[in-house]
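To whoever is covering the structure queue this week,

Two jobs came back overnight. Logging them here so there's a record in the thread.

Job A:
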Amino acid sequence: MLSTANRPTIGYSACAVAPRTAVFELGYQNQTTGSPQTGSVTSQVPQAFTRIGVAPRFEVDVIGPNYVATRAYDAVTPIARTAGVTDSGVGAKYELAASKRWIVGIDGLYTPPTGSTFLTAGNATITGNLDVAYALSEATGLGTTIAVASTGGFAPDGTHARYGVTTPSFVATTRPAPNTQLYAEYVYVSKIAAVEGGRAFADAGVQQLLGTNFELDVEYGHSFIASPALGFQYVGAGLVLQIP
Protein backbone atom coordinates (compact mmCIF):
# COMPACT_ATOMS: atom_id res chain seq x y z
CA MET A 1 0.00 0.00 0.00
CA LEU A 2 2.91 2.38 0.69
CA SER A 3 4.07 1.92 -2.90
CA THR A 4 0.56 2.28 -4.36
CA ALA A 5 -0.46 5.55 -2.66
CA ASN A 6 -0.07 8.74 -4.69
CA ARG A 7 -0.06 11.11 -1.71
CA PRO A 8 1.61 12.89 -0.13
CA THR A 9 4.14 13.38 -2.94
CA ILE A 10 3.47 15.67 -5.90
CA GLY A 11 4.47 12.88 -8.28
CA TYR A 12 2.21 9.87 -8.74
CA SER A 13 2.83 6.23 -7.94
CA ALA A 14 3.61 4.02 -10.93
CA CYS A 15 1.38 1.30 -9.44
CA ALA A 16 -2.29 0.96 -10.33
CA VAL A 17 -4.88 -0.06 -7.73
CA ALA A 18 -5.69 -3.78 -7.68
CA PRO A 19 -8.94 -4.93 -9.36
CA ARG A 20 -12.12 -4.71 -7.24
CA THR A 21 -10.32 -2.37 -4.82
CA ALA A 22 -11.09 1.26 -3.96
CA VAL A 23 -8.50 3.65 -2.50
CA PHE A 24 -9.52 6.97 -0.94
CA GLU A 25 -6.78 9.58 -0.56
CA LEU A 26 -7.59 12.64 1.62
CA GLY A 27 -5.53 15.40 3.16
CA TYR A 28 -5.14 18.91 4.55
CA GLN A 29 -2.47 21.43 3.55
CA ASN A 30 -1.59 24.88 4.89
CA GLN A 31 0.72 27.07 2.78
CA THR A 32 2.29 30.45 3.57
CA THR A 33 3.43 32.55 0.61
CA GLY A 34 5.54 35.72 0.84
CA SER A 35 7.30 37.38 3.77
CA PRO A 36 6.12 37.84 7.37
CA GLN A 37 5.14 41.43 6.43
CA THR A 38 3.27 40.77 3.16
CA GLY A 39 1.83 37.55 1.81
CA SER A 40 -0.99 35.05 2.12
CA VAL A 41 -1.97 31.87 3.92
CA THR A 42 -3.84 29.24 1.92
CA SER A 43 -5.53 26.16 3.36
CA GLN A 44 -7.05 23.35 1.33
CA VAL A 45 -9.10 20.31 2.24
CA PRO A 46 -9.86 17.45 1.61
CA GLN A 47 -7.50 17.07 -1.42
CA ALA A 48 -9.78 14.21 -2.46
CA PHE A 49 -8.50 11.63 -4.94
CA THR A 50 -10.50 8.40 -5.31
CA ARG A 51 -9.03 5.44 -7.22
CA ILE A 52 -10.92 2.32 -8.27
CA GLY A 53 -9.27 -0.78 -9.74
CA VAL A 54 -11.44 -2.04 -12.61
CA ALA A 55 -9.07 -4.52 -14.32
CA PRO A 56 -5.56 -5.90 -13.84
CA ARG A 57 -3.11 -2.95 -13.88
CA PHE A 58 -5.91 -0.47 -14.72
CA GLU A 59 -7.76 2.02 -12.51
CA VAL A 60 -10.20 4.91 -12.93
CA ASP A 61 -9.96 8.05 -10.79
CA VAL A 62 -12.24 10.75 -9.43
CA ILE A 63 -10.53 14.08 -8.64
CA GLY A 64 -11.92 16.49 -6.03
CA PRO A 65 -13.83 18.39 -4.94
CA ASN A 66 -11.27 20.48 -3.06
CA TYR A 67 -12.09 23.50 -0.88
CA VAL A 68 -9.50 26.31 -0.77
CA ALA A 69 -9.48 29.30 1.60
CA THR A 70 -6.93 32.13 1.29
CA ARG A 71 -6.15 34.94 3.71
CA ALA A 72 -4.00 37.78 2.33
CA TYR A 73 -2.16 40.10 4.72
CA ASP A 74 0.17 43.11 4.77
CA ALA A 75 1.04 46.02 7.03
CA VAL A 76 -1.32 48.54 5.37
CA THR A 77 -4.56 47.06 4.01
CA PRO A 78 -7.13 45.04 6.00
CA ILE A 79 -6.99 41.28 5.80
CA ALA A 80 -8.72 39.95 2.66
CA ARG A 81 -10.27 36.49 2.64
CA THR A 82 -11.49 34.37 -0.27
CA ALA A 83 -12.81 30.83 -0.37
CA GLY A 84 -14.11 28.44 -3.00
CA VAL A 85 -13.62 25.11 -4.74
CA THR A 86 -11.15 24.04 -7.40
CA ASP A 87 -11.99 22.19 -10.60
CA SER A 88 -13.00 18.53 -10.22
CA GLY A 89 -12.58 15.80 -12.82
CA VAL A 90 -11.78 12.23 -13.74
CA GLY A 91 -8.74 10.22 -14.74
CA ALA A 92 -7.29 6.80 -15.38
CA LYS A 93 -3.99 4.95 -14.88
CA TYR A 94 -2.50 2.01 -16.72
CA GLU A 95 0.44 0.13 -15.23
CA LEU A 96 2.73 -1.58 -17.72
CA ALA A 97 3.95 -5.09 -16.97
CA ALA A 98 6.56 -4.81 -14.21
CA SER A 99 10.08 -6.21 -14.23
CA LYS A 100 12.07 -7.22 -11.14
CA ARG A 101 13.12 -3.63 -10.38
CA TRP A 102 11.16 -1.36 -12.75
CA ILE A 103 7.51 -0.26 -12.70
CA VAL A 104 6.11 2.14 -15.31
CA GLY A 105 2.66 3.71 -15.29
CA ILE A 106 0.75 6.15 -17.51
CA ASP A 107 -1.93 8.55 -16.18
CA GLY A 108 -4.49 10.66 -18.02
CA LEU A 109 -6.47 13.34 -16.14
CA TYR A 110 -9.33 15.57 -17.31
CA THR A 111 -10.78 18.42 -15.22
CA PRO A 112 -13.48 20.65 -16.76
CA PRO A 113 -13.95 24.21 -15.42
CA THR A 114 -16.27 23.32 -12.53
CA GLY A 115 -14.62 25.38 -9.78
CA SER A 116 -15.17 28.86 -8.34
CA THR A 117 -14.48 31.78 -10.69
CA PHE A 118 -11.21 32.81 -9.02
CA LEU A 119 -9.91 29.21 -8.73
CA THR A 120 -11.01 27.52 -11.96
CA ALA A 121 -8.69 27.18 -14.94
CA GLY A 122 -11.54 28.59 -17.04
CA ASN A 123 -11.29 25.75 -19.52
CA ALA A 124 -10.71 22.02 -19.43
CA THR A 125 -7.31 20.99 -18.11
CA ILE A 126 -5.82 17.89 -19.75
CA THR A 127 -2.83 16.24 -18.09
CA GLY A 128 -0.65 13.30 -19.08
CA ASN A 129 1.78 11.67 -16.63
CA LEU A 130 4.62 9.24 -17.12
CA ASP A 131 5.37 7.53 -13.79
CA VAL A 132 8.53 5.45 -13.30
CA ALA A 133 9.72 3.63 -10.16
CA TYR A 134 12.99 1.79 -9.65
CA ALA A 135 13.76 -0.45 -6.65
CA LEU A 136 17.32 -0.07 -5.37
CA SER A 137 16.57 -2.69 -2.70
CA GLU A 138 13.57 -4.15 -0.90
CA ALA A 139 13.42 -1.05 1.32
CA THR A 140 14.73 1.79 -0.88
CA GLY A 141 13.56 3.13 -4.21
CA LEU A 142 13.65 6.02 -6.66
CA GLY A 143 10.80 7.44 -8.69
CA THR A 144 9.87 10.17 -11.13
CA THR A 145 6.72 11.61 -12.64
CA ILE A 146 6.90 13.74 -15.77
CA ALA A 147 3.57 15.61 -16.04
CA VAL A 148 2.57 17.64 -19.11
CA ALA A 149 -0.64 19.67 -18.99
CA SER A 150 -2.67 22.10 -21.04
CA THR A 151 -4.49 24.45 -18.66
CA GLY A 152 -5.47 28.09 -18.20
CA GLY A 153 -6.33 30.78 -15.70
CA PHE A 154 -7.88 34.17 -15.10
CA ALA A 155 -5.92 37.37 -14.45
CA PRO A 156 -7.13 39.95 -11.87
CA ASP A 157 -8.62 42.04 -14.72
CA GLY A 158 -10.82 39.11 -15.76
CA THR A 159 -8.95 38.16 -18.93
CA HIS A 160 -8.28 34.50 -19.56
CA ALA A 161 -5.25 32.76 -21.06
CA ARG A 162 -4.51 29.16 -21.91
CA TYR A 163 -0.99 27.84 -21.47
CA GLY A 164 1.05 24.66 -21.15
CA VAL A 165 2.95 23.52 -18.07
CA THR A 166 5.48 20.76 -17.49
CA THR A 167 6.05 19.41 -13.97
CA PRO A 168 8.90 16.94 -13.47
CA SER A 169 9.35 15.48 -9.99
CA PHE A 170 11.96 13.15 -8.53
CA VAL A 171 11.56 11.23 -5.27
CA ALA A 172 13.63 8.90 -3.08
CA THR A 173 11.95 6.62 -0.54
CA THR A 174 13.21 4.31 2.16
CA ARG A 175 11.57 2.14 4.81
CA PRO A 176 13.44 2.10 8.14
CA ALA A 177 10.72 -0.27 9.42
CA PRO A 178 8.26 -2.48 7.52
CA ASN A 179 5.30 -0.12 8.13
CA THR A 180 7.17 3.22 7.99
CA GLN A 181 8.33 5.04 4.86
CA LEU A 182 10.37 8.25 4.59
CA TYR A 183 10.51 10.27 1.38
CA ALA A 184 12.22 13.34 -0.07
CA GLU A 185 11.14 14.92 -3.36
CA TYR A 186 12.26 17.66 -5.76
CA VAL A 187 9.64 19.31 -7.99
CA TYR A 188 9.83 21.92 -10.76
CA VAL A 189 6.71 23.63 -12.17
CA SER A 190 7.50 25.36 -15.49
CA LYS A 191 4.69 27.95 -15.12
CA ILE A 192 2.47 28.73 -12.13
CA ALA A 193 0.23 31.09 -14.15
CA ALA A 194 -0.12 32.39 -17.69
CA VAL A 195 2.01 35.47 -16.97
CA GLU A 196 4.36 33.99 -14.36
CA GLY A 197 7.37 31.73 -14.66
CA GLY A 198 8.40 28.54 -12.96
CA ARG A 199 8.94 27.51 -9.37
CA ALA A 200 11.15 24.81 -7.86
CA PHE A 201 10.57 23.33 -4.44
CA ALA A 202 11.32 20.29 -2.29
CA ASP A 203 9.13 18.36 0.07
CA ALA A 204 9.70 15.56 2.55
CA GLY A 205 7.60 13.52 4.91
CA VAL A 206 6.71 10.32 6.70
CA GLN A 207 4.11 7.67 5.81
CA GLN A 208 2.94 5.27 8.49
CA LEU A 209 0.96 2.14 7.63
CA LEU A 210 -1.55 1.11 10.31
CA GLY A 211 -2.67 -2.42 9.54
CA THR A 212 -2.91 -3.40 5.88
CA ASN A 213 -5.53 -0.92 4.61
CA PHE A 214 -4.92 2.40 6.39
CA GLU A 215 -2.06 4.88 6.08
CA LEU A 216 -1.32 8.23 7.74
CA ASP A 217 1.20 10.79 6.48
CA VAL A 218 2.70 14.19 7.31
CA GLU A 219 4.65 16.46 4.95
CA TYR A 220 6.66 19.69 4.75
CA GLY A 221 7.55 21.65 1.61
CA HIS A 222 9.78 24.66 0.92
CA SER A 223 10.43 26.62 -2.29
CA PHE A 224 13.76 27.56 -3.86
CA ILE A 225 13.47 31.18 -5.04
CA ALA A 226 15.49 34.35 -4.41
CA SER A 227 12.53 36.72 -4.00
CA PRO A 228 10.95 36.52 -0.51
CA ALA A 229 7.66 37.76 -1.97
CA LEU A 230 7.39 34.67 -4.19
CA GLY A 231 8.71 32.06 -1.76
CA PHE A 232 6.44 29.63 0.03
CA GLN A 233 6.40 26.83 2.54
CA TYR A 234 3.70 24.39 3.56
CA VAL A 235 2.78 21.66 5.99
CA GLY A 236 0.19 18.97 5.51
CA ALA A 237 -1.24 15.73 6.77
CA GLY A 238 -3.46 13.08 5.27
CA LEU A 239 -4.62 9.52 5.06
CA VAL A 240 -5.11 6.70 2.60
CA LEU A 241 -7.91 4.19 3.08
CA GLN A 242 -8.09 1.02 1.00
CA ILE A 243 -11.29 -1.04 0.71
CA PRO A 244 -10.75 -4.40 -1.02
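Job B:
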Amino acid sequence: MSRPYSWSDYCLRDGTCETLHAKCGDDDYYFEVLYNADNAKLGIWLSNIPRTVLLEAVKFIFRTHSEVRRIGYRYSRVPLGVYTRTNHFRIELPGTQDEILARMSKHERKKLNNRQRRLNEAGNITLHDYKADCNNPDSVDAVNKFFEFKKITHGKNYNLTPKEYIQVYQVSDIYALRCDGEIIAVKLSCKQCPIVGGENTSYSIDYAKFYLGIIMQYTLLSELTKKGKAELYLGDSSYTGQRTYKQHFNSIEETAYNGIIYRSFTEHIRRKAAHAFRMFIKALLPWKLVAVIRSVKRGTKLKYSL
Protein backbone atom coordinates (compact mmCIF):
# COMPACT_ATOMS: atom_id res chain seq x y z
CA MET A 1 0.00 0.00 0.00
CA SER A 2 1.39 3.41 -0.91
CA ARG A 3 1.83 5.90 1.87
CA PRO A 4 -0.28 9.10 1.95
CA TYR A 5 1.02 12.02 -0.08
CA SER A 6 2.01 15.03 2.00
CA TRP A 7 3.67 18.32 1.16
CA SER A 8 6.22 17.52 3.85
CA ASP A 9 7.47 14.87 1.41
CA TYR A 10 9.31 17.50 -0.58
CA CYS A 11 12.26 17.11 1.77
CA LEU A 12 15.58 15.75 0.57
CA ARG A 13 16.03 13.16 3.32
CA ASP A 14 15.11 10.35 0.96
CA GLY A 15 14.39 10.16 -2.74
CA THR A 16 16.31 10.98 -5.88
CA CYS A 17 16.40 14.00 -8.16
CA GLU A 18 16.74 14.29 -11.90
CA THR A 19 16.86 17.35 -14.15
CA LEU A 20 14.55 17.43 -17.16
CA HIS A 21 15.43 19.41 -20.29
CA ALA A 22 12.59 20.37 -22.61
CA LYS A 23 13.01 22.21 -25.90
CA CYS A 24 10.06 24.11 -27.34
CA GLY A 25 10.84 26.00 -30.52
CA ASP A 26 13.93 28.11 -29.85
CA ASP A 27 13.44 27.99 -26.07
CA ASP A 28 15.05 25.59 -23.59
CA TYR A 29 13.50 24.76 -20.21
CA TYR A 30 15.20 23.00 -17.30
CA PHE A 31 13.60 21.89 -14.04
CA GLU A 32 14.17 19.25 -11.42
CA VAL A 33 11.93 16.37 -10.38
CA LEU A 34 12.14 14.75 -6.95
CA TYR A 35 11.17 11.06 -6.80
CA ASN A 36 10.12 9.56 -3.49
CA ALA A 37 8.57 6.06 -3.52
CA ASP A 38 5.47 6.34 -5.76
CA ASN A 39 5.40 10.15 -5.62
CA ALA A 40 7.14 12.73 -7.77
CA LYS A 41 7.35 16.49 -7.34
CA LEU A 42 8.01 19.09 -10.01
CA GLY A 43 10.41 21.89 -9.12
CA ILE A 44 8.62 24.63 -11.08
CA TRP A 45 8.11 27.32 -8.41
CA LEU A 46 7.00 30.45 -10.38
CA SER A 47 8.85 29.22 -13.44
CA ASN A 48 7.71 30.60 -16.78
CA ILE A 49 7.21 27.23 -18.43
CA PRO A 50 4.38 26.79 -20.97
CA ARG A 51 1.56 24.46 -20.03
CA THR A 52 2.20 22.31 -23.12
CA VAL A 53 5.79 21.72 -21.99
CA LEU A 54 4.68 20.73 -18.49
CA LEU A 55 2.06 18.32 -19.84
CA GLU A 56 4.70 16.64 -21.99
CA ALA A 57 6.97 16.43 -18.93
CA VAL A 58 4.17 14.75 -16.96
CA LYS A 59 3.68 12.19 -19.76
CA PHE A 60 7.43 11.55 -19.84
CA ILE A 61 7.60 10.98 -16.06
CA PHE A 62 4.69 8.53 -16.05
CA ARG A 63 6.12 6.72 -19.10
CA THR A 64 9.65 6.34 -17.75
CA HIS A 65 8.82 5.81 -14.05
CA SER A 66 6.20 3.12 -13.76
CA GLU A 67 6.24 3.32 -9.95
CA VAL A 68 5.03 6.93 -9.88
CA ARG A 69 1.29 7.21 -9.14
CA ARG A 70 1.03 10.96 -8.61
CA ILE A 71 3.02 14.10 -9.41
CA GLY A 72 2.76 17.11 -7.10
CA TYR A 73 3.82 20.71 -7.54
CA ARG A 74 3.69 24.03 -5.69
CA TYR A 75 3.33 27.61 -6.94
CA SER A 76 3.01 26.79 -10.61
CA ARG A 77 2.03 29.65 -12.91
CA VAL A 78 -0.38 27.32 -14.71
CA PRO A 79 -2.91 24.83 -13.25
CA LEU A 80 -2.47 21.10 -13.78
CA GLY A 81 -4.43 18.08 -12.53
CA VAL A 82 -6.39 18.56 -9.29
CA TYR A 83 -5.34 22.01 -8.12
CA THR A 84 -6.02 24.80 -5.68
CA ARG A 85 -5.64 28.42 -6.67
CA THR A 86 -3.58 30.49 -4.25
CA ASN A 87 -1.60 33.71 -4.11
CA HIS A 88 2.13 34.26 -3.98
CA PHE A 89 4.22 37.25 -2.92
CA ARG A 90 7.68 38.21 -4.13
CA ILE A 91 9.88 41.27 -3.76
CA GLU A 92 12.18 42.44 -6.52
CA LEU A 93 15.36 43.58 -4.81
CA PRO A 94 16.81 47.00 -5.66
CA GLY A 95 20.44 47.94 -6.17
CA THR A 96 20.89 49.77 -2.86
CA GLN A 97 19.51 49.76 0.68
CA ASP A 98 18.31 53.34 0.25
CA GLU A 99 15.96 52.16 -2.50
CA ILE A 100 14.29 49.76 -0.07
CA LEU A 101 13.32 52.66 2.17
CA ALA A 102 12.35 54.78 -0.84
CA ARG A 103 9.64 52.23 -1.66
CA MET A 104 7.96 52.92 1.66
CA SER A 105 5.68 55.85 2.37
CA LYS A 106 6.94 58.60 4.65
CA HIS A 107 4.61 57.32 7.38
CA GLU A 108 5.89 53.72 7.03
CA ARG A 109 9.52 54.85 7.17
CA LYS A 110 8.81 56.83 10.30
CA LYS A 111 7.17 53.84 11.98
CA LEU A 112 10.09 51.56 11.05
CA ASN A 113 12.64 54.05 12.38
CA ASN A 114 10.69 54.48 15.63
CA ARG A 115 10.46 50.72 16.14
CA GLN A 116 14.17 50.27 15.52
CA ARG A 117 15.00 53.14 17.87
CA ARG A 118 12.80 51.76 20.65
CA LEU A 119 14.29 48.28 20.17
CA ASN A 120 17.83 49.67 20.44
CA GLU A 121 16.81 51.36 23.68
CA ALA A 122 15.74 47.97 25.10
CA GLY A 123 19.33 46.68 25.18
CA ASN A 124 22.39 45.90 23.11
CA ILE A 125 20.91 44.74 19.78
CA THR A 126 23.12 42.64 17.49
CA LEU A 127 22.40 40.75 14.27
CA HIS A 128 24.13 37.44 13.55
CA ASP A 129 24.17 35.65 10.18
CA TYR A 130 24.84 31.93 10.64
CA LYS A 131 25.20 29.38 7.90
CA ALA A 132 22.82 26.44 8.31
CA ASP A 133 25.54 24.22 9.72
CA CYS A 134 24.45 21.75 12.38
CA ASN A 135 28.05 21.45 13.55
CA ASN A 136 27.84 25.08 14.64
CA PRO A 137 26.31 25.34 18.15
CA ASP A 138 25.07 28.88 17.36
CA SER A 139 23.10 27.61 14.36
CA VAL A 140 21.55 24.80 16.38
CA ASP A 141 20.70 27.18 19.22
CA ALA A 142 19.00 29.58 16.78
CA VAL A 143 16.84 26.84 15.21
CA ASN A 144 15.85 25.56 18.64
CA LYS A 145 14.83 29.12 19.55
CA PHE A 146 12.82 29.23 16.33
CA PHE A 147 10.99 26.07 17.45
CA GLU A 148 10.41 27.53 20.91
CA PHE A 149 8.97 30.80 19.62
CA LYS A 150 6.70 29.07 17.05
CA LYS A 151 5.33 26.76 19.72
CA ILE A 152 4.32 29.76 21.82
CA THR A 153 2.97 32.06 19.10
CA HIS A 154 1.39 29.50 16.75
CA GLY A 155 1.10 26.30 18.78
CA LYS A 156 3.32 24.72 16.11
CA ASN A 157 5.34 21.59 16.85
CA TYR A 158 7.51 20.55 13.92
CA ASN A 159 8.63 17.27 15.50
CA LEU A 160 12.01 17.68 13.78
CA THR A 161 15.55 18.13 14.99
CA PRO A 162 17.40 21.27 13.83
CA LYS A 163 19.32 19.13 11.31
CA GLU A 164 16.11 17.61 9.94
CA TYR A 165 14.39 21.00 9.68
CA ILE A 166 17.33 22.51 7.79
CA GLN A 167 17.28 19.59 5.37
CA VAL A 168 13.50 19.38 4.95
CA TYR A 169 13.06 23.11 4.30
CA GLN A 170 16.41 23.55 2.55
CA VAL A 171 17.54 26.35 4.87
CA SER A 172 20.87 27.95 3.93
CA ASP A 173 21.11 30.98 6.25
CA ILE A 174 19.90 31.72 9.76
CA TYR A 175 19.59 35.31 10.95
CA ALA A 176 19.43 35.65 14.71
CA LEU A 177 18.60 38.97 16.37
CA ARG A 178 19.97 39.18 19.91
CA CYS A 179 19.23 41.58 22.75
CA ASP A 180 22.02 41.60 25.35
CA GLY A 181 23.15 38.26 23.94
CA GLU A 182 19.74 36.57 24.11
CA ILE A 183 18.05 35.50 20.87
CA ILE A 184 14.76 37.39 20.45
CA ALA A 185 14.01 36.74 16.76
CA VAL A 186 15.02 34.26 14.07
CA LYS A 187 14.72 34.59 10.29
CA LEU A 188 15.42 31.59 8.05
CA SER A 189 16.20 31.85 4.35
CA CYS A 190 17.10 29.63 1.40
CA LYS A 191 19.84 31.13 -0.77
CA GLN A 192 20.62 28.77 -3.65
CA CYS A 193 20.58 31.22 -6.58
CA PRO A 194 19.83 34.91 -7.28
CA ILE A 195 16.27 34.21 -6.12
CA VAL A 196 16.05 33.70 -2.34
CA GLY A 197 13.28 32.04 -0.39
CA GLY A 198 12.19 33.74 2.83
CA GLU A 199 11.55 30.45 4.60
CA ASN A 200 10.14 31.43 8.00
CA THR A 201 10.29 33.89 10.90
CA SER A 202 9.68 33.61 14.62
CA TYR A 203 10.21 35.92 17.58
CA SER A 204 9.81 36.19 21.32
CA ILE A 205 6.40 37.45 22.41
CA ASP A 206 8.21 39.50 25.06
CA TYR A 207 9.40 41.73 22.21
CA ALA A 208 6.24 41.61 20.05
CA LYS A 209 5.55 45.31 20.63
CA PHE A 210 8.61 46.15 18.52
CA TYR A 211 7.12 44.42 15.43
CA LEU A 212 10.14 42.17 15.00
CA GLY A 213 8.61 40.48 11.94
CA ILE A 214 8.81 43.72 9.96
CA ILE A 215 12.23 44.60 11.36
CA MET A 216 13.61 41.17 10.41
CA GLN A 217 12.05 41.45 6.94
CA TYR A 218 13.78 44.79 6.39
CA THR A 219 17.02 43.34 7.76
CA LEU A 220 16.87 40.39 5.35
CA LEU A 221 16.11 42.66 2.39
CA SER A 222 19.07 44.85 3.29
CA GLU A 223 21.43 41.89 3.61
CA LEU A 224 20.27 40.35 0.31
CA THR A 225 20.62 43.68 -1.48
CA LYS A 226 24.21 44.01 -0.26
CA LYS A 227 24.89 40.50 -1.60
CA GLY A 228 23.46 41.37 -5.03
CA LYS A 229 20.45 39.02 -4.91
CA ALA A 230 17.61 39.56 -7.40
CA GLU A 231 14.36 38.59 -5.67
CA LEU A 232 12.88 37.38 -2.39
CA TYR A 233 10.06 34.83 -2.57
CA LEU A 234 7.58 35.00 0.34
CA GLY A 235 5.10 32.26 -0.59
CA ASP A 236 1.37 32.58 -0.06
CA SER A 237 -0.79 34.01 2.70
CA SER A 238 -3.32 31.82 4.49
CA TYR A 239 -5.01 34.53 6.57
CA THR A 240 -5.58 38.29 6.53
CA GLY A 241 -2.85 39.27 8.98
CA GLN A 242 -0.25 37.26 7.11
CA ARG A 243 -1.32 38.84 3.82
CA THR A 244 -0.90 42.33 5.29
CA TYR A 245 2.58 41.43 6.52
CA LYS A 246 3.66 40.14 3.10
CA GLN A 247 2.39 43.26 1.33
CA HIS A 248 5.13 45.41 2.86
CA PHE A 249 8.13 46.73 0.92
CA ASN A 250 6.31 46.98 -2.40
CA SER A 251 5.82 43.24 -2.80
CA ILE A 252 4.20 41.79 -5.92
CA GLU A 253 1.17 39.54 -5.42
CA GLU A 254 0.49 36.98 -8.13
CA THR A 255 -1.81 34.03 -8.74
CA ALA A 256 -0.27 30.57 -8.43
CA TYR A 257 -1.46 26.98 -8.23
CA ASN A 258 -0.73 23.98 -5.99
CA GLY A 259 -1.84 20.60 -7.17
CA ILE A 260 -1.40 16.91 -7.94
CA ILE A 261 -1.58 15.05 -11.26
CA TYR A 262 -2.77 11.45 -10.88
CA ARG A 263 -1.78 8.62 -13.20
CA SER A 264 -5.18 6.96 -12.79
CA PHE A 265 -8.07 8.75 -14.51
CA THR A 266 -10.49 7.21 -11.98
CA GLU A 267 -8.40 8.59 -9.11
CA HIS A 268 -8.30 11.98 -10.84
CA ILE A 269 -12.11 12.12 -11.09
CA ARG A 270 -12.58 10.98 -7.50
CA ARG A 271 -10.10 13.53 -6.14
CA LYS A 272 -11.55 16.27 -8.37
CA ALA A 273 -15.06 15.61 -7.06
CA ALA A 274 -13.88 15.54 -3.44
CA HIS A 275 -11.98 18.81 -3.95
CA ALA A 276 -15.01 20.47 -5.58
CA PHE A 277 -17.19 19.39 -2.65
CA ARG A 278 -14.74 20.83 -0.11
CA MET A 279 -14.61 24.12 -2.01
CA PHE A 280 -18.44 24.22 -2.11
CA ILE A 281 -18.71 23.71 1.64
CA LYS A 282 -15.96 26.25 2.27
CA ALA A 283 -17.84 28.83 0.18
CA LEU A 284 -20.94 28.32 2.32
CA LEU A 285 -19.20 28.66 5.68
CA PRO A 286 -18.01 31.95 7.20
CA TRP A 287 -14.21 32.22 6.90
CA LYS A 288 -13.81 32.45 10.69
CA LEU A 289 -15.63 29.13 11.13
CA VAL A 290 -13.33 27.59 8.50
CA ALA A 291 -10.39 28.88 10.56
CA VAL A 292 -11.82 27.20 13.67
CA ILE A 293 -12.23 23.86 11.87
CA ARG A 294 -8.69 24.02 10.50
CA SER A 295 -7.32 24.94 13.90
CA VAL A 296 -9.03 21.98 15.59
CA LYS A 297 -7.89 19.63 12.82
CA ARG A 298 -4.26 20.76 13.05
CA GLY A 299 -4.22 21.15 16.82
CA THR A 300 -2.97 24.74 16.58
CA LYS A 301 -3.91 27.95 18.34
CA LEU A 302 -6.36 30.33 16.71
CA LYS A 303 -5.14 33.70 15.55
CA TYR A 304 -8.68 35.05 15.27
CA SER A 305 -11.20 36.19 17.83
CA LEU A 306 -14.75 35.11 17.07
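Note for Job B: Confidence is low (pLDDT under 50) at residues 1-13, 300-306.

Please reply-all if you pick these up so we don't duplicate work.
Q.
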